[in-house]
Amino acid sequence: MKTLISVVGTTGIGKTKLAIALAQHFSTEIISCDSRQFFREMKIGTAAPSEEELSQAKHHFIGQLSVKDYYSIGQFEHDSLELLDQLFEKYDIVIMVGGSMMYEKAVIEGLNDLPEANEENQRKLEIIWKTEGIEKLQEMLKDLDPEYYETVDIHNPRRLFRAIDIIWQTGKTYSENISHAKNPRNFKTIRIGIEAPREKIYERINLRVDKMIENGLLEEAKNLDELRKSEEGRNLASLNTVGYSELFKYFDEEWDLDFAISEIKKNSRRFAKRQLTWYRKEENIHYIEAGYSEKDFNRLIEYINSKTSM
């Protein structure tokens, strides 16, 4: 059976570096399941792999979309499985990497058979979002489904719309709706996690945000600001991404720059906390320490080889 190695962990933990090392070791390719790295206009703020990193191993689903494009998790599941079929004709092992938990879940387990969006519900939620802000949607979801609230990207209004709509339609929490068995896959999955003490994760996040600012995040966000203010951009969920939404408030003179940067760090740490909550509930992840040695990496290869030969 073919094997998908899925590299997971919090934001800023070093997933890209490990994925490339594994891809080079097994002479294979990488699929990204980071839903924000799909957008070509957001390279710096989403920590997309650099040109140098992309040259070290072939990547898929990096910068293939514009922020104007609609792309659902269902489309990603379909496209990823189609690509995996092609890649498994050439390779016994393929690497997947990313911290978008539901996107990884869609590939390795499949999506649940959930009802289509209810137009009336969507209109109601759209009005709430426009009149009371995303905070009201966050509050609603927290009341309706505190478990899902702990892991969902609460800065993505479309994700909040979807969860609340499903809860209203089914009378069950979103967590209950997505807990049922899905379609079995025709490949084996080995999940590799990178871990570190929480304070170390937060320190890495803070340093990474500073590096993003040095590398031109301000200019990258400014290039999206005109679109954000247009009729077309007003409802784009992609522009509600951490690292950009805070800088938009700086451009609007609601916040000064230092405060906007501190909010990027805070919201990035909050996202990491949600990732930790999600991954702690998973039982089939084999962990390696961040900052691992060559000896640790060789042990990891031994572990993977033992699993692929079973």
From TrEMBL:
**Name of one Pfam family that matches:** IPPT
Q: Which UniProt keywords apply?
A: ATP-binding, Magnesium, Nucleotide-binding, Transferase, tRNA processing
User: Which cofactors is this protein said to need?
Assistant: Mg(2+)
| Keyword Lyase annotated | no
The UniProt catalytic activity note for this protein reads: adenosine(37) in tRNA + dimethylallyl diphosphate = N(6)-dimethylallyladenosine(37) in tRNA + diphosphate
* Keyword ATP-binding belongs to the record: yes
Q: Which Gene3D superfamilies match?
A: 1.10.20.140, P-loop containing nucleotide triphosphate hydrolases
Q: Where does the entry annotate site (Interaction with substrate tRNA)?
A: 100, 123
Q: Which residues take part in binding substrate?
A: 11-16
What InterPro entries is this protein classified in?
Dimethylallyltransferase, IPT, P-loop_NTPase
* GO molecular function annotation: ATP binding; tRNA dimethylallyltransferase activity
Q: Name one GO biological process term.
A: tRNA modification
EC number(s)? Answer: 2.5.1.75
Q: What HAMAP family does the record tag this protein with? A: IPP_trans
Please give the function described in this protein's UniProt entry: Catalyzes the transfer of a dimethylallyl group onto the adenine at position 37 in tRNAs that read codons beginning with uridine, leading to the formation of N6-(dimethylallyl)adenosine (i(6)A).
Q: Which proteins does it associate with, and in what oligomeric form?
A: Monomer.
Name it.
Answer: tRNA dimethylallyltransferase
Give the organism the record lists.
Chryseobacterium aquaticum
